[in-house]
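Friendly challenge for the regulars: who can give me the C-alpha cells for this chain first? No prize, just bragging rights.
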Amino acid sequence: DARCIAVLIKGITNPFFSSVIQIIETQVQKKKYAMVMQHVEAYEDELDVALELIKEKRLRGIIFLGGAYRHDSQKLAKLNVPFVFSTIGTVQDEGAKTYSNTAVDDYTESQKMVNYLLDLGHKRIAIIAEGSAAESVGQLRLEGYKKALKDNGIAYDASLVRYMKSELTEFSVANGYQVTKELIGSGVDCTAIYVISDLMAFGAYKAVFDAGKKIPEDYSVMGFDGLEITKYFHPSLTTMEQPCSQMVKHSIELLMDAIDGETEEKQILLDADLQERDSVAEIGQGM
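First reply, four minutes later:
Bragging rights claimed.
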C-alpha cells in the first residue's frame, strides 16, 4: 500500500514556497507518508498535471500549492483522490461544489497594504502586479489595490499599474528589476511602489538605486509574503507576512481528514501580518 502524498507546486522559483515545502515535508513524514513533489509550469493547468500523476502513481492525497483559484468543475470531479488547495483562496461558480483550501485573504490583505500607504500620505502609488488574465493570487492583490484607492476617493490611474514581463520568470528578482526600471524611466509621477512579491521587490530596489534614487526618501517600496530575507534588505522591507506554518498545518489537517473519509469541505482564511520596517516613509518626511 503506497502511502504517498503529492505536492503540486505552481511557481517553484518563489522562495515563499521553499519554506512552505520544508514544513509540509516534516508534517507529512510525521504522519508516516512519503512525499512526491511535482512542478507545474506557468502555462500548465495543475488539474491536468494531477490527473496524469494519479495515473502513474498510487496517491493517497494531493496538496496544490499556488496556481489558479477557479477550476474546471468537470476536471475536479475526475480527481478521485482527496485533495486540498494551499496558499490560494478559491472562488466557486454558482452551484459548483466547493473544496477545501487554506490561504490568506489576498484581496483584503492587499487592501490593508495600500491603506497603510494612503494613511502615510501617499496618493501616487504604483503597483507591480501579475500580468496574466488568470484568476490568481496576483489578480486578487491587484483588486485589493483598486478597492483601497476607490474607498479613499483616489482615481485609478492605469499608468501606475505595471505588469511583470511574460518573457521573464514570474515573480523573479529580474522581473521586479525590469518592470521598476521601466516605471521609473517612463517618468510617471509616484511616491510609492507596491510590489506584489518580496522577491520582485528586491529587483525593484536595484532599479531604484540604479536610477540614482533612494528608498524611502525618493520612493517608498513595499512587498508581500514576508520572506525571512526581507529583514536583511537595505533598508529592511515593509511587507505583509503570510503565516506559513499555520497555513501548512491546516492544509495537512484538512487533507488527513479527507483521507480518513471526512467529506465536509472547509475553507480556512488566515490573517497576514503587516511588518512595518524601513522601506516606507511618510510623505512630507524628506520629500
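The chain has eight helices and twelve strands. The mean pLDDT is 92. Your move, everyone else.
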